[in-house]
Design goal:
The complex is a heterodimer of chains A (547) and B (177). With 547 residues, chain A is α/β, with parallel strands linked by helices. Helix content of chain A is 22%, strand content 18%. Helices cover 49% and strands 0% of the residues of chain B. In chain B, α6 crosses α7 (118-134). Classes of the chains: A alpha/beta (547), B mainly alpha (177). At the A-B interface, α3, α7 and α8 of A face α6, α7 and α8 of B.
Chain lengths: 547, 177
C-alpha cells in the first residue's frame, strides 16, 4: 500500500529534527518524522555505569546497535578498519528519539558574536577552510531565546562579561552550587577570571509541567529518571505529535533521497523495522541526521542529475568534519571536593574563548560532571601506576578529593577531515556506510595547551596539591559534537546549503542540524543546533505560506 | 537471572561453576586480578567478584574477547612455567607481580604468546578488572558495593539528593508559546 503523501519528511528526531518537526507541524504542514532508533525512556536505560553515552565498555545504550551499523575509519597513517558504534573511533552520537539530547550533559551555550566571523576576526588560517558564517549572532539571537524558553534553560550568565548581548534572561535560576563550585568560584575571582553559572537545559525548578532536577550523580550520559533534563524528546517532539499533524516512525532507516527528472526532491526511500522498503513522498525533505549521517545520506542519494550525491556538485558534502578537541586539567586536593550533588558541572569561564595572543579562537572552561568510579580509574597523576596497591590507594585517597576543569577547543575546519561513503562496506540494510578520515588542525593543539594551562592554574589557585593536564590527540574529531559537513554559505562553490539551510541547487531539500555549522564554537553546540532549527523552520514556514 | 540467561549463549556446560572459564583458567585469572587490585584494608578484586564479572561478560557483551582470554590465560601459564617452572597461581606474590610487569612492558617470553601479545592481554586484564571492581554490582562484580564504599560514595546509591529546599524557589513563569 502506498504511503500517503505529506508536506514534509524530517529525517532524524534529534536536537535539530525534533524542533523542525514541531515548528512545521504546528504551522499546519503534515509531517512524517523518521527516526532510525527507538523511543527510549529512563526505564529502558536504567542507570548503567558501564553502558551509557559516556562509558560504552558494555555497549551503546542510546543506539545505534553494534550488530548492524558498522563504519570504516581511516587513521592518520592511512590504515583502515571497520568499527562498531561502541568503539570511540566510530565517533558516535546517538540514535534514538531525542538523539543526543536524551543523555547529554545539557550545557546550553550561545555562541559569541566573534564565533560567527572568525575569518574576519583572525584572517585566513593556513591548512584550514576557516570562513565566516553567512549569518550573524544577531540573526540567531531571537531563536536562541526561543530555544532557551521553549526547551527550558536554567543558569545565570549575567556575570559572563564576554557573552553576546541577550534580550531576555534565562527562564530558570541556576541550581544551588555544589562544593566544587564553591571552591572554584573564589579561586577564579582571585585570578581575575569571570566565573558564572553554566546555562543548562535542565529544570532547576518545575518548568513546562515537569519536575526539577533531583541532583543525582547519574546525569551526563544517562536519561533522566525524573524528566528534569530537557531534550527534544520531552519538549518539541511531544508538541509536534500533539498538533495532530506529525507522525513519528521509529526504527526507520532512510536509504536515499528520491528526486524527479528535474532534480527536485520527491521524497525518501526507507526501511522499516521488518525491514520492508517504503517510499514516502513529500513536498519537501529535511535532513537532520547529524554531521556524519546527514552527509552519508546526501552522498548515498545519487541520480542522473547528482551522480556524486545530492547537493555535492562541488565536492563539499562531508568535508570540514569538526567536533571538539577536549582539554583541561585535573587537580588533587588534601580536602574533600566531592559532595555527590549532581550534575556536577556548574561553573564556567569564557575568559579564553577569544583574544589569546598568537592563537585563533579558544574555548570555555568548566568544572567536570560527576565522575562515576570506573571513569575515575584513568585519572592518574604523574607517577601513579595503572594497577596494584598504589593505584588502589590513589583511588581511595583521591576519588572525593579531586576536581577536573575541562573545555572544548574551537576547532579549525580542515577540508581533508571528512565523511565519505565506503565503496565496499555496507550496513545490515545494504546501505554504504560512513567512511571517516582526516586529522585536526595544528592550531587546535596550541589552543589546547593554552586552555589546559589555564585550567591547571585555576585548580592550583583553588588549592590543588598535584595537577596535570589532558591534551587531545591530533586525529579526526567528530563524536557527540560532530558538525560542519554540509557547510552553510552564500557561495554554492564553497558550501552545501544557503543561509536558510536549503541545499543550493535543490529548492525543496534542507539540511538542518550541526552539519551546517561553518565553525563549531568553543562550546557545546546543542543550543546553536536548536536555534538554527527554529530559525530555518521559521523561514521555511514563511516561504511555504507564500507559495 | 542474567547469569542463567547468559549461560545459554554457547558457553561451557554445567560441569563446573563458570560460564566460559575452566576451573584452572579461573584460578589463574583470580591470581592475576588479585595482583591488579590486591586486598589491603579493603577487599581485593577476587573477593569483590571480578572473576565472575569477566566470566559473565565473556558470555555477554564481551564475547568477542573469548579467544583473547583463552589464549591469554594459557600464555600466562606458559610464561610462568618458562620463567619459574610452576603455574601462575601458586607463585609468590613478588613473582606474580614480576611477570605481570613483564607483560605490561611487552617483555614476557615471546614464545608463550603466539596469538596475542602479552602487552595487549595485559591491557584487557586491567580494563576488565577495573570494570568488575569499580563497576555497578549488577554486572557481577563489586560485591556489596565494596569499592564504592571504599571510595566513600553511598551504597546502595541514593537516587537524588535534595540537600536544598528548592521548594522555596519560586517557579519560573510559564513559557510564552
Amino acid at each position: 500500500m502506498a504511503l500517503k503523501h505529506v508536506n514534509a519528511v524530517v529525517i532524524g528526531a534529534g536536537a535539530g529534527g525534533g524542533i523542525v518537526a514541531k515548528e512545521l507541524a504546528t504551522a499546519g504542514l503534515s509531517v512524517v518524522l523518521l527516526e532510525r532508533g527507538q523511543w527510549n525512556t529512563p526505564f529502558d536505560d536504567r542507570k548503567d555505569d558501564l553502558r551509557n553515552q559516556r562509558t560504552t565498555v558494555l555497549g551503546n545504550a542510546f543506539g545505534p546497535d553494534d550488530e548492524r551499523n558498522p563504519r570504516v575509519v581511516v587513521d592518520e597513517d592511512g590504515r583502515e578498519r571497520i568499527v562498531k558504534p561502541s568503539d570511540g573511533a566510530y565517533n558516535n552520537n546517538a540514535a534514538c528519539v531525542g538523539g543526543g539530547t536524551v543523555s547529554y550533559g545539557a550545557m546550553a551555550w550561545r555562541l559569541m558574536e566573534k564565533d560567527f566571523c572568525l575569518r574576519s576576526t583572525y584572517g585566513t588560517v593556513e591548512g584550514s577552510t576557516l570562513d565566516d558564517w553567512p549569518i550573524s549572532y544577531r540573526d540567531l539571537e531571537p531563536y536562541y531565546e526561543k530555544a532557551e524558553w521553549e526547551v527550558g534553560v536554567s543558569g545565570d550568565d549575567s556575570n559572563n562579561i564576554f557573552k553576546a548581548p541577550r534580550k531576555r534572561p534565562l527562564p530558570m535560576p541556576p541550581l544551588p552550587p555544589n562544593r566544587e563550585y564553591q571552591i572554584l568560584k573564589p579561586a577564579a575571582q582571585r585570578l581575575g577570571f569571570h566565573p558564572f553559572d553554566i546555562p543548562m537545559l535542565r529544570n532547576s525548578v518545575p518548568y513546562n509541567g515537569r519536575a526539577a532536577c533531583m541532583r543525582c550523580r547519574w546525569c551526563v550520559g544517562f536519561a533522566c529518571e525524573v524528566d528534569a533534563k530537557n531534550g527534544t524528546q520531552n519538549t518539541a517532539i511531544p508538541k509536534a505529535l500533539a498538533s495532530g499533524n506529525c507522525e513519528l516512525r521509529t526504527d526507520c532507516i532512510v536509504k536515499e533521497i528520491l528526486t524527479d527528472a528535474q532534480g527536485r526532491v520527491r521524497g525518501v526511500a526507507y526501511f522499516d523495522s521488518k525491514p520492508h522498503l517504503h517510499e514516502q513522498t513529500a513536498d519537501l525533505v529535511v535532513v537532520s541526521g547529524s554531521a556524519n549521517e546527514s552527509a552519508r545520506l546526501l552522498l548515498n542519494s545519487k541520480s542522473r542529475m547528482f551522480p556524486n550525491g545530492i547537493g555535492n556538485r562541488h565536492d563539499w558534502v562531508g568535508r570540514n568534519l569538526q567536533g571538539h578537541a577536549y582539554t583541561g586539567a585535573v587537580g588533587l586536593f588534601d580536602f574533600e571536593c566531592y559532595d555527590d550533588l549532581g550534575p556536577g558541572a556548574g561553573i564556567a569561564i569564557c575568559d579564553f574563548n577569544h583574544g589569546n595572543k598568537g592563537l585563533v579562537g579558544g574555548g570555555m572552561l568548566a568544572n567536570e560532571f560527576i565522575r562515576l568510579p570506573y571513569q575515575f580509574v584513568g585519572w592518574r597523576g604523574p607517577g601513579v601506576p595503572r594497577w596494584g596497591r598504589a593505584h588502589k590507594q590513589h583511588m581511595r585517597q583521591f576519588y572525593r578529593r579531586s576536581m577536573g576543569v575541562m573545555g572544548p577547543v574551537q576547532e579549525m575546519p580542515v577540508f581533508e577531515s571528512r565523511v565519505q561513503v565506503d565503496p565496499s562496506v555496507k550496513d545490515y540494510w545494504g546501505i554504504p556506510v560512513v567512511r571517516l578520515s582526516g586529522h585536526r588542525h595544528p592550531n587546535d593543539q596550541l589552543v589546547a595547551k593554552l586552555l589546559s594551562s589555564k585550567a591547571e592554574l585555576w585548580l592550583k589557585e583553588a588549592g590543588a596539591k598535584t595537577t596535570w593536564t589532558f591534551l587531545p590527540g591530533t586525529g579526526l574529531s567528530g563524536g557527540q559534537h560532530q558538525a560542519g559537513t554540509c557547510r552553510m554559505g552564500n557561495d554554492p562553490q564553497t558550501s552545501v546549503v544557503d543561509k536558510f539551510c536549503r541545499v543550493h541547487d535543490v529548492d525543496n531539500l534542507y539540511v538542518i542540524d550541526g552539519s551546517v555549522h561553518v565553525t563549531n564554537g568553543g562550546f557545546n553546540p546543542v543550543l546553536t543546533i536548536m536555534a538554527i532549527a527554529y530559525y530555518a523552520s521559521d523561514n521555511l514556514v514563511k516561504l511555504w505560506r507564500k507559495s | 537471572m542474567a547469569a542463567a540467561a547468559a549461560s545459554g549463549v554457547g558457553c561451557a556446560g554445567a560441569k563446573h561453576p563458570w560460564r566460559f572459564l575452566t576451573v584452572d583458567e579461573a584460578r589463574t585469572l583470580a591470581a592475576i586480578c588479585d595482583q591488579i587490585i590486591p586486598e589491603d584494608e579493603d577487599p581485593g578484586a577476587v573477593w569483590a567478584g571480578v572473576v565472575n564479572y569477566i566470566d559473565r561478560q565473556l558470555c555477554g557483551p564481551l564475547e568477542g574477547l573469548r579467544d583473547a582470554y583463552r589464549n591469554g590465560i594459557a600464555a600466562v601459564e606458559s610464561s610462568s612455567r618458562t620463567l619459574y617452572g610452576v603455574a601462575f597461581a601458586p607463585l609468590a606474590a613478588a613473582q606474580q607481580v614480576e611477570l605481570l610487569t613483564l607483560m605490561e612492558q611487552g617483555r614476557a617470553p615471546a614464545e608463550s604468546w603466539p596469538q596475542i601479545s602479552s602487552h595487549e592481554f595485559f591491557n584487557l586484564l586491567i580494563d576488565q578488572t577495573m570494570q568488575g571492581f569499580y563497576g555497578d554490582p549488577r554486572h557481577g562484580g563489586n560485591r556489596d558495593g565494596v569499592s564504592w564504599k571504599m571510595l566513600g560514595i553511598p551504597y546502595p546509591p541514593i537516587r537524588g539528593r535534595l540537600h536544598f529546599d528548592i521548594g522555596n524557589i519560586k517557579p519560573a513563569p510559564p513559557t510564552t508559546t
